[in-house]
Amino acid sequence: MLSKAAGGRPAKPSFVSYVSPEEIHIKEPAGKEVNPYLLPGELLLCEASTVFKYVQEDGSNRGTYGKLVCTNFKVAFLGYESASDDNEPQFKNKVIGENDITLHCIDQIYGVYDEKKKSLYGQLKKYPEKLIIYSKDFRVFHFCLRCTKEEEVKRIVSGIVHHSQTPKLLKRLFLFSYASAAPNSPDAKNRTVMFDTFKDWHEELERTKGNVKYEVVSVNEGYRVSEKLPLYFVVPKPFLKSVTESILVHQGRGIPIWCWSCHNGAALLKMSPFPKEQDDSALQMPKLMDGIYKTIHAPPYEVLKMDDLSSSLPSLQDIQTAYTRFKQLFLIDNSAHFWDTDVKWFSLLESTNWLEIIRRCLKKAIEVVEQLERQTTNVLLIEENASDLCCVISSLVQVMMDSYCRTKFGFQSLIQKEWVIGGHSFLDRSNHLRKSDKEEAPVFLLFLDCVWQLVQQYPPAFEFTETYLTVLSDSLYIPIFSTFFFNSQHQKDTIMSGESHNAQSSPFRLLTVWDWSVQFEPKAQALLNNPLYAEKPKPDKSQRKTTRFKHHRQLSLPLTQTKSSPKRGFFREETDHLIKNILGKRISKLINSSEELHSNFREFYDSWHCKPVDFHGLLLPHIEGPEIKVWTQRYLRWIPEAQLLGGGTVAITAKFLDVMEEVQKLQKQMDEEHSQTAAEDADAVPTLRNSARLSSLFPFALLQRHSLKPVLPTSTWKDLEDEEDLAKRDDEFVDLSGAD
Amino acid sequence: MMGEEGPPSLEYIQAKDLFPQKELVKEEESLQVPFTVLQGEGVEYLGHANDAVIAISNYRLHIKFKDSVINVPLRMMESVECRDMFQLHIVCKDSKVIRCHFSTFKQCQEWLKRLTRAIARPAKPEDLFAFAYHAWCLGVCADEEDQHAHLCRPGDHVRYRFQMELARMGFDLQNVWRVSDINSNYKLCTSYPQKLLVPVWITDKELENVASFRSWKRIPVVVYRHLRNGAVIARCSQPEISWWGWRNADDEYLVTSIAKACALNPGAKAANGTAQNGTSEGNEACDTDFDSSLTACSGVENAGAPQKLLILDARSYTAAVANRAKGGGCECEEYYPNCEVVFMGMANIHAIRNSFQYLRAVCSQMPDPSNWLSALESTKWLQHLSVMLKAAVLVSNAVDREGRPVLIHCSDGWDRTPQIVALAKILLDPYYRTMEGFQVLVESDWLDFGHKFGDRCGHQEKVEDQNEQCPVFLQWLDAVHQLLKQFPCLFEFNEAFLVKLVQHTYSCLYGTFLGNNPFEREMHNIYKRTCSVWSLLRAGNKNFHNLLYMASSEQVLHPVCHVRALHLWTAVYLPASSPCPLGEEGMELYLPSGSQSQEFSGRSLDRLPKTRSMDDLLSACDSSSPLTRTSSDPNLNNHCQEVRVSLEPRYASTDGSELLLEEGSAVAVRETQKMMTGFLFPLM
Q1: Cβ atoms of B409 and B235 closer than 8 Å
Q2: Which stretch of A223-227, A629-633, B135-139, B194-198 has the lowest confidence by average pLDDT?
Q3: Chain A residue whose CA is closest to B297
Q4: Looking at beta carbons, which pairs linking A551-558 to residues 24 or more positions away fall under 8 Å?
Q5: Of A202, A349, A608, B512, which is least packed with CB atoms within 10 Å of its CB?
Q6: Is B642 in a helix, a strand, or coil?
Q7: Which of these, A458, A312, A448, lies nearest to A392 by C-alpha position?
């Protein structure tokens, strides 16, 4: 028995294969031709066969052979051995496959020449034997081209480099070929408010009860005033009547534009300042505006405080530099690289400055919240163009103060309002057209990362999960959605009218990213919703009609309802002085650097954190050093070394889903018992099967399931046999648990 | 001495009389003691600090501010000094720093003197509060025997742990293994348990020979057996090779015998395994030649022969060699056939102590947030944790995936060794992730095998050597906390349980962690004269239950140990900056009325104001908790309930908080609650 027991174990093969791929017998695509799945309007540009894709660059040379193709939409690798269908991942993107990288998602391309890594760009003289692609969603692909025919190598490498790196015309975006080729599906009913109509703005005003003192204007119809401003926007009520013409001259500069109203009547406004060099006509402007500031500084308006974001927050350049360094920490070539950087992890992280920038944004947002909430002052954010950091801060303030913005539709509407319609230059900031690196800055990602900090600090306060934020950030690079591919509403409208003139067919519609069914099946979409969300006792989001009505009635309330600030007198005397400074653009420094602000902030922050959290009320993030964390799911999701089997936050979610399912079952039983057959349609609780074995990188890790080899004892990869083996083991342990 | 056999009425008078209370020195007549004292606790000084009432009892320092409270056991304090003329600066062993301002220099000096006296090392064990607490507790209840059982006995699973563990792990005591009584009455080794598990063919004579070759006579003995494949974990101290390169044939024989014994007593799987099973195991092994990259082991074993034994030396190679100068050393692979020696490079207690002191400095003097990360890195605390986890993962992989027996040692085998052994056992065996199993684990691998709690925590009488102090156990608890964070559903206990354990490692309210080894504890009769910490952290105490626990999961844990994945244990080191509590009214709203029983009484702690330091650490409930214990004897329950009810008004006077956990554990409980709230609410 003994010898059998010991003999049952074959010698452990402990060698590491150092044979290069060409020495391994290549499994030819035995008659089985692999063809890429093409979207409507997608064209195959070039392809190369017998490309070897490494599973994980750990020196083991494991991987699969397949075809590498480049289309006008993506670069895709098609393995000859198709993955068996039974391990279909639970969470699958319908547009982007496991081995697909959209052209806009390609971050860096490297070629390996004689073991040396070189960046590939422009015209290539020599073609590499290995191609490494880093994508913007942090995947790293290693392709070996040694078995590929030379011509094909030339074509595919230069094709990928050309189509992903060279400047493009806006009209050449895949967006348009897709939209014109795709069947015009009826617009799915979406509760996200798009803010492209007068009505949307009006309703938002009513929702926040800002309609007493602010109104929607349509002066910009036809973009007469400015191409940066949306068609409709909101301004203080007495404002426009006096200065309509001067607005026209200055393209909307100097106008305080309403973002949001606080429950106490204080409002958040934004403004792009006058240009520094003013011509003669511009000199007239200040005088005109003078009156306006005075008006909105006096009752019934609250005291106005100004905040020049360009002086109190890092510049776009800083943000770009920080992110460039930061993302490099997660683009990991192999596990040796991973462990090397682990030793110095914290100092590396700190040197990127990315977390510090997040912290500063959150801090600034808390400062603004303090002024709105406690001091009941209007806050005017000032920034050149008012469409970058203004968007970050104003959106963050709304997420913190308005629980509606923490619901999924509320959050999406917020992004529409502040970012998409608000004129954030997505096209330039993401450098989708590869025109100019100077304009590139991950401002929107910065915002998502800030929101993630809030989500992980207060999970029950948000209707969406971190997975939602992660797939949203990925959607930034999928050029079938129009949401993130224009600089402004004007740009979109112009090109759309131009396109529809050209096309004889009926005008096409562009998809919005908010239609999640384009990317995910309902089952996968369920993972975007937070099962732990503490819903409001009276969910007014589903009954917006009625609440609107309620607000409507409050319209008739007298203006004087808001109590005036005791400090008003003092500030009114200061007004002239303040305005001089606004125009001189020095104002914010005077206000912001004051000691008073700092102590106010501290007091407000501390006192809020002493109190218990109301998940539907004001939410302030912790901003101390240890509380600002790395968004692990987004940045570490493809790194096998970071994976835990049966652990991580996924385990908690899975457990909750289990319990929820059980409770629902019991509830159903109870209902049946009471013969109340009016069973509410069972909200399909997504169940994460086999949750004990679930990877902590779920839902993303499953896409990389074939990766087998653990490099260090810390790695938790298991291959399929291994899992079977574990399953058997579980059975054998049953006795043990019984004995306990 | 108090005799257990004496008539009860007589006894409790004696017990109390041994610990008379000192007279209270009040600085001002009108002052009232601002907290409820524990059994046997007497306030000695009561006075005023700036905007605060300050009190020192024989157990704690209490500072009551207008809206917050600092409450810390005296033994938790490491040092007190006066800073800036008017400020007392108190550094605690669990990394907290307390500051208290006085209005005059004289006053500050006076309190400094009092406090310094109060925290001086005890002259004799009886000076520790645990003894007084126990003696006075005995007086509360008429039924002495029951009372004693509740206070001292941690439960059968702890008392009979050795036998129960042998049975649970399926040792074949007929043919392969035997329990040696060579150490009964600690004749051989005072820092080892009395019963030792060795291969059956090793004689006591041979063990004696081996003992002469190992530091402190800590011989290789077996402490764990993997049920599935029969691989064992053994532990010992370093061999005394010294510069001369001594060998010991019996030692070499014993070490290789352990591997042989494993092959003779194979696990359930190998015994009835089929050929198919064998191949899958082979794949597994092929899949796991990962350790080659870390440990440079070739690990090729011959079919049929016993698996190659892995000797894991927790030190670095250089440290091990350097130890030869002091008479120690490490095994030479040539002399130990079929063994492989691997060095883990874990730092010694002095490096860990330094690291902890840096960490404490960083946490108490929070740097500018922009420098936080590099400050954290410079403490090296997480890096040390990472190495410890790596070592444990290496052991668990060797045992679980390769079926290899492992022998673990460091220098003395009582600091790094229990860290690795106990952590690996948690990874391998779900039993140690239950409350009961965790108690058994701490009792056997830490207490029985002589981790020097007295020296490491600085409780030992008459010893003033700071060099012996080191938060070894705390560091291990931190590692367990990391696992709990990584596998939130696979532990029966919650973070509060661990935080409590940290506190009571140092508080000296319970006798569990007093003394340096089982011999000392027995000599001072500590088991009978103090309460057990497990009477508080008992399995029945719902406050320490992890609501997310999935009892059915049997999996071996494969944690990630890179520094990226490790978290600073804010509940212990930075209690004030942890996420905020829930609203009390919110809580009431969210909880179904049925569940608002005492199990959730921990929720009352949400009502406490948050402070930089600790909230009321241990109040009446700790003293009463043994009474509320739902013991296995159903008759006791009624009786206990009565006592409980009669004590109720007293709780009301202490802020209405039934169970006052300190800040950190409160935070930990809260985190779970937060999730529960979010989850329960939509269903209501």
Answers
A1: yes
A2: B135-139
A3: A14
A4: A551/A206, A551/A207, A551/A209, A551/A211, A552/A206, A554/A209, A555/A206, A555/A211, A555/A212, A557/A212
A5: A202
A6: helix
A7: A448
Q: Is residue B394 part of a domain?
A: yes
At CB < 8 A and 24+ separation, what contacts does B321-327 make? B323/B238, B323/B411, B324/B241, B324/B242, B324/B243, B325/B243, B327/B215, B327/B240, B327/B242
Class of residue A55 by CB neighbours under 10 A (exposed 0-12, middle 13-18, buried 19+): middle
B678 annotated as a binding-site residue: no
Catalytic residue, candidates B141, B152, B262, B410: B410
> Is there a binding annotation on residue B325?
yes
Pairing of β A304-308 and β A378-382: parallel
Q: How many whole angstroms separate alpha carbon B63 and alpha carbon B71?
A: 6
Compute the distance between CA of residue A483 and CA of residue A417 in angstroms, rounded to an integer.
Answer: 12
Is the pLDDT assigned to residue A601 strictly greater than 60?
yes
Domain that holds residue B50: 20-120
Cα(B570)–Cα(B562) distance, rounded to whole angstroms? 19
The token pair at A113 is: 């020449």
- Structural domain includes residue B644: no
Residues B190 and B253 in one domain: yes
CB pairs under 8 A between A and B: 303
Active site residue B410: yes
Q: Kindly state whether residues B198 and B55 are assigned to the same domain.
A: no
CB contact under 8 A, B562 and A610: no
Among A346, A541, A542, pick the best mutation site for testing chain B contact (most B Cβ within 10 A): A346
Q: How far apart are CA A274 and CA A384, in angstroms?
A: 9
Residue of B440, B556, B529, B400 whose CA lies nearest to B168: B440
By DSSP bridging, strand A44-54 and strand A140-144 are antiparallel
Count up the domains in chain B and report the number: 2
- Do residues B462 and B373 share a domain? yes
Give span(s): CATH 2.30.29.30, chain A. 44-166
C-alpha closest to that of B472 among B420, B517, B509: B420
How far is residue B521's CA from residue B524's CA, in Å, rounded to a whole number?
A: 5
> How many Cβ atoms from other residues are within 10 Å of residue B78's Cβ?
21
Q: Which residues pair with B64 in a beta bridge?
A: B53, B69
CA-angle at A204, arms to A484 and A544, nearest 5°: 105
User: Are residues B530 and B393 both part of a single domain?
Assistant: yes
> Domain boundary residue among B539, B573, B607?
B573
CA distance linking residue B234 with residue A435, whole number of Å: 65
- Kindly state whether residues B111 and B155 are assigned to the same domain: no
Whether residue B200 sits in one domain with residue B116:
no
CA of A519: how far to CAs of A139, A414, A480, A516, B412, in Å? 19, 21, 10, 6, 60
Instruction: Nearest chain A residue to B554 by CA: give it.
Output: A730
Residues A209-259: tens digit of each pLDDT: 988 888 898 888 888 888 888 999 998 887 666 556 666 667 778 788 999
pLDDT at residue A287, rounded to an integer: 60
The response to whether B408 counts as a known ligand-binding position is no
- Residues B394, A736: C-beta atoms closer than 8 Å: no
φ and ψ at residue B98, rounded to 5 degrees: -115, 135
Q: Is residue B612 part of a domain?
A: no
Chosen CATH of A44-166 out of 3.40.50.300, 2.30.29.30, 3.40.640.10, 2.30.30.100? 2.30.29.30
Q: pLDDT digits over A550-583, tens only?
A: 333 333 333 333 333 333 333 333 444 444 444 4
Q: Are B324 and B429 within one domain? A: yes
**A486/A470 Cα distance (integer angstroms):** 21
Q: What is the DSSP string of B294-323?
A: HH-------TTSPPPEEEEESS-HHHHHHG
DSSP, residue by residue, A369-391: HHHHHTS--EEEEE-GGGSSHHH
- Stated as kind and residue range, the H or E segment containing B280 is helix B275-287
Residues B358 and B414 in one domain: yes
ipTM of the complex: 0.81
Would residue B142 count as lying in a domain?
Answer: no
